[in-house]
Amino acid sequence: MDDKDLRQHDESSRRTKLLKHNIVASFAIKGWSVAMQFLLVPLTLHCLGAYENGLWMTISSMLLWIDNLDIGLGNGLRNKLAEHLAHNDIDKARRVVASTFFMLIVLIVPVCVLINILIWNVDVYSFFNVDDKIVNDLRTVLSLTTIMVCFTFVFKFIGNFYMGLQLPAVNNLFVALGHTLTVLGVGAAYLCGSRSLLLIAAVYTVSPLCIYLISYPVTFYGRKYSQLRPKFTNVTSSMVKELLNIGVKFFVLQIAGIVLFMSSNIIISRLFSPDMVTPYQISYRYFSAVLLVFTIICVPYWTATTDAYQRKDKEWIIRSSRILNRLIAFAAGLMVVMVVLSKPVYKIWIGDVVEIPLPMTLFMALYVMILTVSLRYSYILNGFGTLNLQLIMTVLAAVLFIPISIWVGTATKDINYLFVVMCLVHLPGLIVNYVQYHKIINGKAKGIWIK
Q1: Residue 244: count of CB within 10 angstroms of its CB
Q2: Amino acid 206: pLDDT
Q3: Percent of the chain whose pLDDT exceeds 70
Q4: Percent of the chain at pLDDT above 90?
Q5: Which one is predicted more confidently, 115 or 271?
Q6: At what angle do helices 314-340 and 358-384 cross, to 10 degrees?
Q7: CA 100 to CA 77: how far, in whole Å?
């Protein structure tokens, strides 16, 4: 084995060891995070009731739109930081961190102002199909939560920073601590007998912000990463351009993904009732536990794949892919078991407050399984930096989903047909992801297949 092969072997071993450590740590952290999220469902439901809880779930899904309006800068930081560190270029790594941080500030301030102007000047009650006699402070709820989410929008880049360092477990820790603080706040409100939507909304949005505000000085004023601390003097136009080249692609993917994943809440609320959002979300959260576990494993592979791809270590990527294929088979079996046990699990989890029909459970299981298989390839392709085909397929699905789902829901008056549409619009993207991955790994990708 020559020096080059020895170095590649050492890097491969280091990458695998770091990946395993992060997966193990992420499982422990995410396990706690999932427990907190599951606990939040009945707590929030008992605090607010089915009507206001459905409204809050709809608002929460819309707040995610703001949370992902970073024009892909977070994921751009993740890929570019990993790339520059793979080549040991500390100066570029420093500039990409600074450029990301200050671009996020410039981006979110006008967005925050504009959204608040809209909140106080449009008929938000009609938009959400909400009775103002039941919820009399909707504008205040929307304004407060928007401002808090916009602050979080900037500081959550710290999580992407750690993912770029191949330390996704640290990002998971921030999220878990935010959920824990939220549970404590909602639990306190429940024990005190509070039924205020405004209070619950404040707890949900302030809690994660507190965690990120604390993590900033811990990260950038400590000894280990102080050299990468964001400074305005390190912002450069060339780095901004570099970030935007890849960031815009991630941004379009994020927006299209939000439309696909979150607009269903609004469609259900408007075509049926806010009450119907609750069983939909509960069934999704139940099966998304599988998606969450799979994501815990896949997320470290994203940045590790970037590192391996930059170092031309194709063998490591192929070995990793075999592991992910075995995990997909396990996930499919687990999903079947979850369907069989769904009724007693729902009973223990939420009691008799909400009934979730079996067809909804079956369609949700299928939907989440399609997402899981598709993401298995998406994370690796993201690590390659080949985003164009994903972008095309995801945007196409998003464009088709809303009009088709509205037409189907209006024509059938049956929410189950909406789930059929959700499944069908994701299938083409899954197929394209599969084909593109194999073309790239076999050295046969040309044209758009390699972009």
Answers
A1: 17
A2: 94
A3: 95
A4: 17
A5: 115
A6: 170
A7: 7
Tell me how far apart the terminal alpha carbons of the chain are, to the nearest angstrom.
34
Highest mean pLDDT among 127-131, 143-147, 386-390: 143-147
Instruction: Give pLDDT tens digits for 40-55.
Output: 888 888 888 878 888 8
> How far apart are the C-alpha atoms of 360 and 343, rounded to whole Å?
12
The 3 state secondary structure assigned to the chain is CCHHHHHHHHHHHHHHHHHHHHHHHHHHHHHHHHHHHHHHHHHHHHHHHHHHHHHHHHHHHHHHHHHCCCCCHHHHHHHHHHHHHHCCCHHHHHHHHHHHHHHHHHHHHHHHHHHHHHHCCCCHHHHHCCCCCCCCCHHHHHHHHHHHHHHHHHHCHHHHHHHHCCCHHHHHHHHHHHHHHHHHHHHHHHHCCCCCHHHHHHHHHHHHHHHHHHHHHHHHCCCCCHHHCCCHHHCCHHHHHHHHHHHHHHHHHHHHHHHHHHHHHHHHHHHCCHHHHHHHHHHHHHHHHHHHHHHHHHHHHHHHHHHHHHCCCHHHHHHHHHHHHHHHHHHHHHHHHHHHCHHHHHHHHHCCCCCCCHHHHHHHHHHHHHHHHHHHHHHHHHHHCCCHHHHHHHHHHHHHHHHHHHHHHHHHCCHHHHHHHHHHHHHHHHHHHHHHHHHHHCCCCCHHHHC
The 10 Å Cβ neighbour count of residue 99 is 27
Structure tokens belonging to residue 21: 């450590």
Distance of CA 114 to the CA centre of its chain: 24
Rounded to an integer, the average pLDDT of 427-436 is: 90
Q: Residues with Cβ < 8 Å from 229, sequence gap 6 or more?
A: 97, 220, 221
- Which tokens in the block code for residue 256? 């299209």
Taking the C-alpha atoms of residue 172 and residue 30, their distance in angstroms, rounded to an integer, is 7
Residue among 97, 259, 102 nearest 165 (CA)? 97
User: At residue 62, does pLDDT exceed 60?
Assistant: yes
Instruction: Please give the backbone phi and psi of residue 312, each rounded to the nearest 5 degrees, phi first.
Output: 60, 40
439: its two tokens = 């073309």
Q: Which pLDDT score is estimated for 234? A: 87
